[in-house]
Amino acid sequence: xxxxxxxxxxxxxxxxxxxxxxxxxxxxxxxxxxxxxxxxxxxxxxxxxxxxxxxxxxxxxxxxxxxxxxxxxxxxxxxxxxxxxxxxxxxxxxxxxxxxxxxxxxxxxxxxxxxxxxxxxxxxxxxxxxxxxxxxxxxxxxxxxxxxxxxxxxxxxxxxxxxxxxxxxxxxxxxxxxxxxxxxxxxxxxxxxxxxxxxxxxxxxxxxxxxxxxxxxxxxxxxxxxxxxxxxxxxxxxxxxxxxxxxxxxxxxxxxxxxxxxxxxxxxxxxxxxxxxxxxxxxxxxxxx
Length: 289
Fold this sequence. Notes:
Oligomer: single chain
Number of domains: 3
Distance between the termini: 54 Å
Largest sheet: 6 strands, mixed
Shape: globular
CATH superfamily of the largest domain: P-loop containing nucleotide triphosphate hydrolases
Strand order of the largest sheet: 6-7-8-3-9-10
Helix content: 25-40%
CATH topology of the largest domain: Rossmann fold
């Protein structure tokens, strides 16, 4: 359960770019320690702008952002990055060292670690992310999935309290997505607060408990995932699509079959179908005997 006081509190935040584009309009949002939430919406809705206000990459034109009750307005990006780690959609926006090992080492340079402690942490993170064999390789020569892993590893190694991911499943295959899901579950179990910008409806419905929907620089919905992402008018307004389970439920209703409202995952849907078909088969057999 969330704690009584929010870890992150965003109060009346607005942001206008130099070209006059208003990206955020009166944003009010509380996020609690240990939550794992998704921020969703169409391109240009303000999602990425919003998360950039959390670590000082941009400063709100109006309003305030508080982390653990403390206004971050006077905090430097370096100070905030010790508590808040952002992994951007394009890993090459974060990777610039000559080798994979140097990438991790650079990320840890602000920590007062002995030579032995530093090497130990580097070795541990490379092993955890299965990047040991690429230790001396240039990040430029890694595959897209490996670059994404390295970008995440370069943040995770600093052990920040808050982890923010921008489209982490985009362009990833099933194995890479499975690795990421295991990773965020592990980090959540370690008490981390996790915020994920994503367009991936199926990933969200199966892994995230709370969804914030944004459109035109505003928050238009905030609540339990299974309620927010199954409302057609909200999904359409944010240019998303309904989860497959919801689409299937609507299709069944059109032919007169009632679909249980508490079914949200593909596994639950499969079990329902198996049971439904068995019942039909049993009735047909009874009627023909």
